[in-house]
Amino acid sequence: MSKNPLKLKALLIDLNGTLHIGSDPTPSAVQALTRLRQARIPFIFCSNSTKESSSSLLGKLKGMGFEARKEELLTSLGACKMLVEERGYKRPLLLMSPSAQEEFASFSDSAPYDSVILGLHPESLSYEPLNRAFRVLKGEPLSTQDSEDRPKAEPALIAPHAAMYMQDPGSASLPPGLSLGIGPFVRALEESTGAKAKIVGKPTRSFFELALERLKAQGGEEWDVREVAVVGDDVENDLGEGARELGLKRVLVKTGKYREGVERTTEYPPDHVYDTFANLVDDLVQQ
């Protein structure tokens, strides 16, 4: 069998569910990533995680044994920050964990808010904080003093992604399995306020275009987009929309939130299906 029969020259790799689940690597994923580096196959980590900042996520990966570099990581939170900067927002209301809020440390965290950004953080998605977000988007006061100095433009609703569910590693109260993502909360704010959320993470075209720019920044040869694959455990939220529009190869792995047979029932089946990320690397880097 020939080396690299898939004819792929670069990868855009999902993290949670593909390289790891919670704090545990998927089977042989650490070794597989090392083999990719040794074979000089470039890659970008593409994460929709909204629970932690980029620096925290890098530390988590290193703690699991993965070699991970800042320039190789593109997160949906990072894409949110870029959008906020591009549009000139100064005061985003952040519904996310303290770690995730570190990504936005350069912005003011006080009213009047000009935007709302959601992350996956249970304490931030309960009634009180969601109602604050609702009031910001509807132009309602947050305090008795909040009647003056409101933003001239309507506040924006921004979401890193809109996945309806995720693979949960489990907790003291629940075993491992699927749990709610931020998608239902994004939808709730859209329906109640009439706002249309700007989604910036996977699977949007703009996110994958940013990832391709990161690949080019690593130097080396130019690739045909058909020689680049996005790898993930969610056929819609990892491999959908933008990946299809750009013509990226789409590789589904049977770990994380994958459920048996989903590749046969989706409207747009993936190009390839592997049991694990390591099995994909076996085909890319053959001894």
Automatic annotation (TrEMBL):
Q: Its domain of life?
A: Eukaryota
A molecular function annotated in GO for this UniProt entry is: phosphatase activity
Please tell me whether the keyword Heme is annotated for this protein.
no
Q: Which GO terms describe its cellular component?
A: cytoplasm
Note the SUPFAM superfamilies from the entry.
HAD-like
Q: Keywords in UniProt for this one?
A: Hydrolase
Query: What Pfam families does this protein's entry cite?
Result: Hydrolase_6, Hydrolase_like
Q: What is this protein called?
A: TIGR01458 family HAD hydrolase
Q: Which organism is it from?
A: Cryptococcus amylolentus CBS 6039
